[in-house]
Specification:
With 126 residues, the protein is an alpha+beta fold. The protein has one domain: Nuclear Transport Factor 2, Chain: A. The protein is 23% helix and 48% strand. A six-stranded mixed sheet has the order 2-1-6-5-4-3. A hairpin with a 2-residue loop joins strand 4 and strand 5.
């Protein structure tokens, strides 16, 4: 899958609802997100997105794409998302696998919210 399509797919997941997750998120996905229960299965992620307002604007930066083997793509990036007055910034990664020719799904996704300015790794308990 070419890079432009990778980022289109990822952006669809940030803007889309349950129907997008049902088509693009793999049955075996594991998601680590900064909200309870923190580790999500596919069903839990679909249920969560049903009850969450969609992001109106999404901007990616610091984008990286890796293809460690045939049929697997790993991406990492910084995202800034907003809806109304609410904004959200995190660093995210996703792993996609090819199920069949031109049929890709997300099998892993994680989000890391950067610490507040002035907080060090030691102060955050690491």
């Amino acid at each position: 899958m070419e890079d432009a399509r990778i980022w289109e797919m990822e952006e669809k997941l940030w803007h889309g609802g349950a129907e997008v997750y049902e088509s693009l998120v793999d049955e075996e996905v594991v998601m680590a997100l900064p909200a309870e229960p923190f580790i999500f299965s596919r069903d839990a992620a679909i249920n969560a997105v049903k009850n969450t307002p969609r992001w109106e604007e999404v901007r990616f930066s610091d984008q990286k794409v890796s293809r460690p083997q045939e049929g697997i793509i790993v991406i990492g990036y910084r995202v800034e998302a907003s809806r109304g007055e609410e904004t959200y910034t995190c660093y995210a990664s996703s792993t996609m696998r090819r199920r069949e020719h031109d049929d890709w799904t997300v099998v892993q996704h994680s989000q890391v919210v950067p610490p507040k300015i002035g907080m060090t790794a030691q102060a955050s308990g690491r």
